[in-house]
Amino acid sequence: MDKFRITGGRALAGRVTISGAKNSALPCMAAAILTGETVTLHNVPYVRDCLTQRRLLEDLGATVLVPDLRTHKITAANVELFEAPYELVKTMRASVLALGPLIARFGKAKVSLPGGCAIGTRPIDLHLEALKLLGAQVHLEAGYVVARAPKGGRLVGAGIEFPKVTVTGTENLLMAATLARGTTRLMGAAREPEIADLAELLNRMGARVRGAGSETITVEGVEALGGAEHTIIPDRIETGTFIVAAAITGGELEIKDCCPQHLGSVVARLREAGVEIEEVNPTTLHARRSPEGLRASDVTTQPYPDFPTDMQAQYMALMTQARGRSRVTETIFENRFMHASEMQRMGARIQVEGHNTAVVEGPSELSGARVQASDLRASACLVLAGLAARGETLIDRVYHIDRGYEKIEAKLRSVGAEIERVRESVTAQLPPVETVTA
């Protein structure tokens, strides 16, 4: 498995460019299943999760052309398989997003129960119960979800109220409802920018979606969808990670091609903690640590538009360098503090209380150590800690970070970080993308 070797203590300085949001690219790629015409997506990040989603689409029978590294032309005219197998879904739970489009267009789907990061239980019960309200017949069979449309072959619009916020559930039902007969209202829907981005693509394909980005989404079903062209939004979590990188190293970064309006709660919390963040223009931020230094500030993760769970680990790393005691409370997942014990090995003073609260005493002088990543955002957290630490840090299992950050080591090196990838296996590398001109 690949590792990162980091020699810390260098203040980062320079300019980084943010990639497309993988959490938007994945559902948008799945949405191409809804039509036999070509869907062209720009700004698709070159990350492992998107490569996995591409493989899933190709396994189903879709054609995916890549005329340049970040453009995908997806044509699902000849889909012959209606199954997302365990081998793919176990590595990336977003593969379950094939469920809604398959049953909507073809009236049947078989999708393995999902896997992905080891950050707690993330059941898809909410997806399944909602699909039943649209008339689908759903049952579990040998670890797979098997779903069929009602008699007549089309789902039927209905009112659906989610008992708790679910991002992938909202996305799956949003896509399923586009081809349902009648009107569907999704209440208690997730409000993430990635959902609004998916809805924008669907509307370009001919769907009738209103209210995406709010708690209530209305979808008027149509007979068929067509091709479209769409550009994926910037990755707000990558943006937040680089803001923290500037602050934790005492450096200064210009962060380009981002979307500051998607980062309201993150920017507000980081400013409270002593990070100076200036909006240079609508797509560029300037970030640095305040001359007065970092100060402890509590944070609680909540669904968007509040502080995202995907920034919790990075924020905890920052708090190890802040003056005072901070409390980090996780309300989304019950097992997302595994990075705390790894940072303790580096000298961080972190006490985990119960399943959902960590108390951080700072500032701590971090020392390089050999640590192990447990999930995507924990990987980023350990990279940040390694950048701030004295000496050498070796991070194992960085395949996690490859799932969601595009060439993060190259981006960090470009702004002065001393970081290298230690390759121990050819199979651990991201495969080269063969570009094909349509």
What does this structure look like?
By secondary structure, the protein is α/β, with parallel strands linked by helices. The chain folds into 2 domains: 212 residues, Enolpyruvate transferase domain (UDP-n-acetylglucosamine1-carboxyvinyl-transferase, Chain, Alpha-beta prism), CATH 3.65.10.10; 210 residues, Enolpyruvate transferase domain (UDP-n-acetylglucosamine1-carboxyvinyl-transferase, Chain, Alpha-beta prism), CATH 3.65.10. Helices cover 29% and strands 26% of the residues. It is built from 14 helices and 24 strands. A 4-stranded mixed sheet has the order 22-23-1-24. Strands 2-15-17-16 form a 4-stranded mixed sheet.
